[in-house]
Design brief:
This protein is mainly β. Helices cover 3% and strands 51% of the residues. The chain has 2 helices and 28 strands.
Length: 310
């Protein structure tokens, strides 16, 4: 789930529910719409600059598309980059490419082989840049259970995450080699990472724990287990999002039926008992919480309250 700088809209795609549709929540109307974008199996949404965002259309065959949008009208496709069995194309205003991320991961069926590929946007077109993920295919991973799940550009390197691997892999864009591996909380989750707006802190989730990393020395500064186990069984937290206007972080907790807000020290400051099983959530400027239920995708709403004993 992502939102715009003015907190007017929230966008989401839960692939098992939405397929190739974009879920758009309008804060002023307190309502949502589901817009059909493509016949893809699911969409992946990425924040860009100046309220632009990109949408990856994942087909799980030989096709992969990237569309560019702006929050002024999230439904409008301003530019579309296409890849179909090595044939590429561009439609619309290609100059907008500078506002979106340049690297993505895709599962493609090419030349009879189904596997992960690194997608880069180069000279205004989609390119395969698989030399930068050779470390993964040459590594000691269980490819049935440990897929590549995220790539983030950081200066002259790329940061990758792998399923069920409590690590961030720093890869040089020049040599394509591993610079180093950052171990997280040893919880064997499916890490997602996100920089704060000043890029002075990098946050990562690791199953039930949130971690803060210093991106200068790449040392872990803080870690906090945010979801207790049930009868000895670990329970994961949902997705987290860094708030636009401050250093607070919103985290959905499907096994606690609530949404919490933690500060930069990862201490809980606010919570909202929202019910059901929220998997992703955003707090708007009026303290309104908007979330989606894990299994159904249904809209959940509430208001955060200060937690006195954080």
């Amino acid at each position: 789930m992502i939102c715009d700088s003015k907190l007017n809209y929230a966008l989401s795609n839960l692939g098992w529910v939405d397929k190739g549709n974009l879920w758009i929540y309008n804060s002023s109307k307190n309502d949502f719409k589901i817009i059909n974008f493509s016949d893809s199996k699911y969409l992946s949404i990425y924040e860009g600059l100046n309220d632009y965002f990109s949408v990856c259309h994942n087909f799980d065959d030989a096709r992969f598309n990237i569309s560019i949008h702006n929050f002024n009208d999230p439904r409008d496709i301003l530019c579309k980059l296409t890849f179909n069995n090595f044939k590429t194309g561009v439609e619309g205003n290609h100059e907008l490419i500078k506002y979106i991320p340049k690297f993505y991961l895709a599962s493609l069926q090419l030349n009879g082989d189904y596997k992960f590929h690194l997608i880069s946007i180069h000279d205004g077109e989609i390119k395969l840049d698989d030399s930068k993920i050779e470390w993964y295919y040459n590594g000691n991973f269980d490819f049935m259970y440990q897929g590549l799940i995220g790539v983030t550009e950081s200066n002259d390197e790329l940061l990758f995450c792998v399923q069920r691997q409590s690590s961030i892999f720093r890869i040089s864009k020049e040599t394509n080699q591993i610079i180093n591996i950052i171990d997280l909380a040893n919880r064997y989750g499916n890490p997602k990472i996100s920089f704060n707006k000043e890029r002075t802190a990098l946050y990562a989730d690791d199953y039930d724990t949130l971690v803060r990393i210093n991106p200068i020395n790449w040392k872990i500064e803080k870690a906090n287990l945010l979801q207790s186990a049930d009868k000895g069984t670990q329970q994961f937290i949902g997705s987290f999002i860094l708030n636009k206007s401050n250093d607070l972080i919103t985290i959905a907790r499907p096994f606690s039926s609530d949404v919490i807000v933690v500060d930069e020290n990862l201490k809980i400051r606010y919570n909202c008992m929202i019910g059901k099983q929220p998997l992703e959530a955003i707090v708007f400027s009026d303290k309104k919480v908007v979330a989606r239920d894990w299994k159904t995708g249904n809209l959940l709403t509430g208001r955060i309250k200060y937690k006195y004993f954080a």
